[in-house]
Amino acid sequence: MLILGIDSSCDDTSASIVEDGTTILSNIVSNQAEIHKKYGGIVPELASRRHTEMIWPVVDEALTVAGVRLEGISAIAVCHGPGLIGSLLVGISFAKAMAYSSGIPIVAVNHLEAHIFSSFLEEPRPKFPFLALIVSGGHTSLYKVAAFGSYEELGRTRDDAVGEAYDKVAKLLGLGYPGGPIIDRLAEKGNAEAINFPRPYLHGSHDFSFSGLKTAVLLYLREHPDVPVEDVAAGFQTAVVDVLVKKTIEAAKANGLSRIVLSGGVSANRHLRHRIMGADRDIEVFLPSPFLCTDNAAMVASAGYYHFLDNHIASLKLNPEAYLPL
């Protein structure tokens, strides 16, 4: 069974062909980082315009690389939220037009759900139930995943998402955009013990908070303008990872879960991946390859496959939703 996945939730235009929810035949991503770099963040209007330009070439390339024709597709899976409303609208409009003209059914996929199922695209695959940590530019959440379609939110950020905090700290340091990969590289050269930034653990809760940590970096830079940038990057990243790992392990144990799935763009962070793998010998951790951590249509197609099996067919009245809880 072949699923065509389409994702245009933020600034990447992506299309993918996935077989039986697990085997990637193609996964094409058109990245917009160079467009938004000079603005220090994503400009929604520019993102949606670029999606309009790239959506057909990307889908066409995905079909070509996979070696399949449109009539061989069983269903079209499209991300319908959460995300930037203008960007989502491009992907959904294209998917609906394709579904209408071809008669292929369409299924709607939640972006957060898609991130969780990125781990089902590689071996070994997690077994239910498990704890999912989703960390990205827009989300920092913990979910108990009992089965497909059964998700319980255990914790979430109360302010900044962790990826957003990375971008803001990178901007304070004059490092450019996107900030996460830059800080990750610089932290390798810095002394993580040189600066002891606060750890916002929010004891008694599985929630996160990173705005105070971002402010702590700002105040430190004002008082120490000549501090090595590498040390700030290392100190900030260590504080973030300490919180993410500690709270994730605590949530897993509190809910009797022995498996953790890490997903989202920040899950490509090398320090986070290293630390969470060795955090607890009794907990098995599943890490998707870095190319599956960032936004991509393969994870949308994977989740869409299970929706299709359950006959969750969307109508052609499907609309995007900027805010869409899982």
Average pLDDT metric? 96
CATH architecture designation of the largest domain: 2-Layer Sandwich
Integer tally of domains: 2
Largest sheet: 5 strands, mixed
- DSSP strand tally: 10
Q: Which stretches are low in confidence, meaning pLDDT under 50 for 5 or more residues running?
A: none
Instruction: Please indicate the percent range of residues in DSSP E strands (runs of 2 or more).
Output: 15-25%
Count the helices. How many?
A: 11
- CATH topology annotation of the largest domain: Nucleotidyltransferase, domain 5
Residue share in helix: 40-55%
State the secondary-structure class. alpha/beta
Along the chain, the helix and strand elements come as: EEEHHEHEHEEEHHHHEHEHH
Distance between the termini: 26 Å
Radius of gyration of CA atoms, rounded to a whole number: 20 Å
- Oligomeric state: single chain
CATH level 4 superfamily of the largest domain = ATPase, nucleotide binding domain
Q: Given this structure, which CATH class of the largest domain is correct?
A: Alpha Beta
Describe this structure as you would to a colleague.
The chain has 326 residues and is α/β, with parallel strands linked by helices. It folds into 2 domains: 2-117 and 293-309, Nucleotidyltransferase, domain 5; 127-287, 2-Layer Sandwich (Nucleotidyltransferase, domain 5), CATH 3.30.420. Helix content is 42%, strand content 19%. It is built from 11 helices and 10 strands. It has helices at residues 33-37, 44-66, 85-102, 111-116, 162-172, 179-187, 211-223, 229-254, 270-277, 290-293, 297-309, and strands at 2-7, 13-19, 23-30, 75-81, 106-110, 130-135, 140-147, 150-156, 259-263, 284-286. The strands form 2 sheets. It has a 5-stranded mixed β-sheet with strand order 3-2-1-4-5, with helices on both faces. A 5-stranded mixed β-sheet has the order 8-7-6-9-10. Strand 4, helix 3 (85-102) and strand 5 (106-110) form a beta-alpha-beta unit. Helix 5 packs across helix 6 (179-187). The chain is globular and about 60 Å long. The two termini are 26 Å apart. 49% of the residues are buried. The mean pLDDT is 96.
